Amino acid sequence: MARTATAPGAPKTALGKAALEVDDRLIVAGPLRRTLNKVFPDHWSFLLGEIALYSFIILLLTGTYLTFFFQAAMTEVTYDGSYAPLRGVDMSIAYASTLDLSFDVRGGLLIRQMHHWAALLFVASIVVHMMRIFFTGAFRRPRETNWLIGVVLLVLALVEGMTGYTMPDDLLSGTGLRIISAIILSIPVIGTWAHWAVFGGDYVGELIVGRFYIVHVLLIPAILLGLIALHLLILVKQKHTQFPGPGRTEHNVVGNRLFPTFAGKATGLLLVVFGVVAALGGLVQINPVWLWGPYNPAQVSAASQPDWYVMFLDGSTRLFPAWDIYLPGNYNIPALFWPTLVLPGILFTLLLAYPMLERKLTGDTASHHLLQRPRDVPVRTSLGVMAITFYLVLMLSGGNDVIADKFDISLNAMTWIGRIGLLILPPIAYVITYRICLGLQQHDREVLEHGIETGVIRRLPHGEFIEVHQPLGPVDAHGHGELAYGGAPVPKKMNQVGGARRAIRGFFSPIEEPTAVELEQRSEERGLSSAEAQRELTSSGRPAEGGRPAEGGRPSEGGRPSEGGRPQEPRD
Amino acid sequence: MSTTNPQSDTQPDEGPRRSRWSRRPAEGTPAAAARARRRSKQRRRVGNVAALMAGLVLTGALYSTLAPGAQAADEGSESSAEAAGRELYERSCISCHGENLEGVPNRGPSLIGVGEASVYFQVHTGRMPLVRQGAQAPDKPAVFSDEEIDQLMAYVQANGGGPVLPSGDLRDGDLALGGELFRLNCAQCHNFVGEGGALSSGKYAPSLEDANDLEIYSAMLSGPENMPVFGDNQLTSEEKRAIINYIQTITDMPDPGGAGIGRIGPVSEGVVIWVVGISALMFGIFWMGSKA
Fold first, then answer.
1. Is residue B97 annotated as involved in ligand binding?
2. What is the ipTM of this complex?
3. Residue A78 pLDDT > 80, yes or no?
4. Distance between CA atoms of B140 and B120, rounded to whole angstroms?
5. Given an 8 Å threshold on Cβ–Cβ distance, is B288 in contact with A268?
6. Which SS3 state, helix, strand or coil, does residue A190 take?
7. pLDDT interval class at A204 (50, 70, 90)
8. What is the extent of the structural domain holding B101?
9. Where do the TM regions start and end (chain B) (predicted)?
10. Which residues of B touch A286 (CB under 8 A)?
11. In this complex, is the C-beta atom of A467 within 8 Å of any C-beta atom belonging to chain B?
12. Which of A128, A137, A376, B5 has the fewest Cβ atoms surrounding its Cβ within 10 A?
């Protein structure tokens, strides 16, 4: 585009002129416009993945600050810092620098706590995001690749969290490291070799913290960053899924443009996530390593647990029977191998393969861009709840000594509750979820067929009492609704179809006068009374006498109980 | 035999008897001498008995006059506390620990040798008297006053013996050393910060948060419930004081990072991130969703 000062629409502001200069050189206006105009569907659950993204950004920022002060080495030093109860104690320089970071570096403790809270939040939001993807069927063709990337991201996040947990070299993380070492050793055939490779010798050696450090700050973050970028690029390329609803099809995307609406929301959410993490980091103490003490293999504490996302493996270890297998030739497979390597191997393989398994089992190979409501796919939903129940039992068992201690339950009883619960509860959860899904489906059908219960009871001339139902659409000769279920939420309360006074604006406090809203509402013809003249009474399942006038093409404005044809006071 | 049957030989019977004894040495001086000897022996014996009787009577009389006074003096000088302790013991402890501290099978252990340290710990923390038999005695508000506890301690110490309570400043020890010893000896059950923890079959290591110095010391000395005894050979008195110093220092220490959330690490942190963190963010995204 040639630049002429007299061209129509030429920018007049300084900003516009600057932008023109940039575009002249980089030719970005076209692609940028396309990107900024990209439409994202709007639903609260689509923001869950963003929480994970923003936690990751916080992790990168706070983590960078921590690297300025943390020294990842296991050289022994004698502590001589600000924390009196450890002064004079021998410890690794990693632990000493963590103490200095916490007590002697300005803002160090806050940043360290924010980093740790953000790490917990990162994994938690990944899990919640994944549940949303799973239960709505967003992983279906063509989005299997992104599901696979997501599972890999989850596993990497776990490893990243585990290495970060280990680095301060305190008594808690050292206990975890001892267990990691035991897990590696328990691998048949290659265990010892793998252990030697990871630790550079026997446990604990002097290398492991330095190795974990470079894995934690370079390798995994780089891979995470790359995969997240790929995850988002694929998302943009394939477009976001959306829930079914009016005007939404497999071939369009209904929502807001990236700029300004979506960008505004995303920025807002970034700030909210940042605020929550900063509040937690400032107000709630996490991993007080100075209380744990330096790591010493001769010492261990009661209630030593991994962070929550690895707790399910601790739980599986606690529940699994002590089945050591002894083979000829002084060779054995420790019981630890099954709950800590085989079980997560199976779980993550199933998670990875689920889209392919479902495609195979249902024969549904079509492309889907519209999401499903969990109730409409009861088998998948029930399987998901079953898996979550299984996971929860394992996770709670990982803290079963704390639960036993705090609630005065025998630890042995907790172990057996976990063992039995692990086998019994998931099937029960499956059955219950399945029934709930079917019940919700039927209720949707019922409302579509018979209308919304208004709560208005009428007495007919011959003495019968009926409840007035508000049909959602046109009805047939028997008074039954003719709308088919479309996979979208069905309104089930009069308020959802405008039965009540509209909400007064304002989130925490009203920003408009309630009385003004009420007056405005009164002036409008609303409620049952407004259509009283044309309406015949219908009741659920009974034909209305003389049928119904066929005017109801759209859901009625609503039905408020009326008295003498006058609109009533709105009830709240 | 015959000598113990002295005066049975009567004169009229002497003839036949002698004839019976005719094969023995002929009657005459040796036999008479023997009889006389026998008689004097008997006389001596009677005298002995009389003297013994007199001695006994005299001793008894003396005892009856002197002993009550001695007894009264004894009680007054050393065991009014003991007597009060005995009364408390017989009212509250005897059914399980027995009449003489010997214990009752399947009910309560012997208290012989546990000493006043154990009594102090068990009674001052309210563990004893026991509410019911269970996996472990829970601590509760003390039933006895400090004075009554002293009396019980005196009674058990006097009758059973055992470790006694320490004196002096119980926190007089090196803080860092105390920390090391605590992590080495105590943390595996009581947790890094003395939060306590579960043991098998409903037993547990209690939290040390509310324990006073003397309770911790006496617990180490006496090894209550499932706790091992840390006698002065395992941990010297200075080391015990160092441990107490460490425990009380970190218990009283504020949490620099904010709310302590129980100081038990990942379990409560996991609860917080889900209940507080994720909930707050869900609220945030619902809010954003409602602003469509």
1. yes
2. 0.85
3. yes
4. 14
5. yes
6. coil
7. confident
8. 80-160
9. 46-66, 271-289
10. 257, 269
11. no
12. B5
| pLDDT of A553 | 38
d(CA A209, CA A150): 28
Residue B102 shares a structural domain with residue B146? yes
A271 touches chain B (CB under 8 A): no
Q: What is the pLDDT of residue A32?
A: 87
3-state secondary structure of B25: coil
* CATH number for the domain harbouring residue B216: 1.10.760.10
Cα angle B136, B138, B141 (rounded to 5 degrees) comes to: 155
Q: Which of A385, A386, A397, A384 is nearest to A424 (CA)?
A: A386
- Within the 46-75 window of chain B, which residues sit less than 8 Å (CB to CB) from chain A? none
CB neighbours (10 Å) of residue B51? 10
Spatial distance between the Cα atoms of A187 and A185, rounded to a whole number of angstroms: 6
Of B198, B260, B281, the CB nearest to A272: B281
pLDDT of residue A271: 95
SS3 of B73, please?
A: helix
Partner A contacted by B159 (CB < 8 A):
no
List CB contacts (< 8 A) between A307 and chain B.
Answer: 266, 269-270
Structure token pair of residue B98: 């027995």
Mapping DSSP to helix (H, G, I), strand (E, B) and coil, where does residue A203 land? coil
Phi, psi of A467 (to 5 degrees): -95, 135
Can you tell me the mean pLDDT for B43-53? Answer: 78
Output helix, strand, coil percentages for chain A, rounded to the nearest 5.
Answer: 55, 10, 35
User: Strand, helix or coil at A493?
Assistant: coil
Position A526 scores a pLDDT of: 55
Task: Output the CA angle B160-B165-B167, nearest 5 degrees.
Answer: 150
Is the residue at A194 inside a domain?
A: yes
* A266 touches B: beta carbon within 8 Å: no
Q: Tens digit of pLDDT for each residue in A267-279?
A: 999 999 999 999 9
Say if the Cβ atoms of A293 and B255 lie within 8 Å. Answer: no
In a domain, B47, yes or no: no
Contacts (Cβ under 8 Å, ≥6 apart) of A107: A65
Binary contact (B183, A301; C-beta < 8 A): yes
Domain count, chain A: 2
Q: What is the mean pLDDT of residues A128-146?
A: 95
What CATH number did the domain enclosing A167 receive?
1.20.810.10
Please state, as a whole number, how many other Cβ atoms lie within 10 Å of the Cβ of residue B221. 27
A479 is in which domain, residue-wise? Answer: 457-536+543-559
Q: What is the DSSP string of B129-168?
A: S-SS-SSSPPP-S-SS-HHHHHHHHHHHHHHH-------S
pLDDT in tens, A39-75: 888 889 999 999 999 999 999 999 999 999 999 999 9
Does residue A23 sit within a domain?
A: no
Token pair of A549 as six digits: 């006038």
pLDDT digits (tens, 9 = 90+) for A328-364: 988 889 999 999 999 999 999 999 999 999 999 999 9
Q: Does A286 touch chain B (CB under 8 A)?
A: yes
CB A538, CB A471: distance < 8 Å: yes
Residues of B in contact with A300 (CB under 8 A): 187-188
- The domain tally of chain B equals 2
In angstroms, what CA-CA distances link A9 with A24, A28, A191, B242? 16, 18, 71, 82
Choosing from A266, A284, A306, the residue where a domain stops is A306
Contact predicate A54/A273, CB 8 Å: yes
**Which secondary structure element, helix H or strand E, spans residue B27, and what is its range?**
none
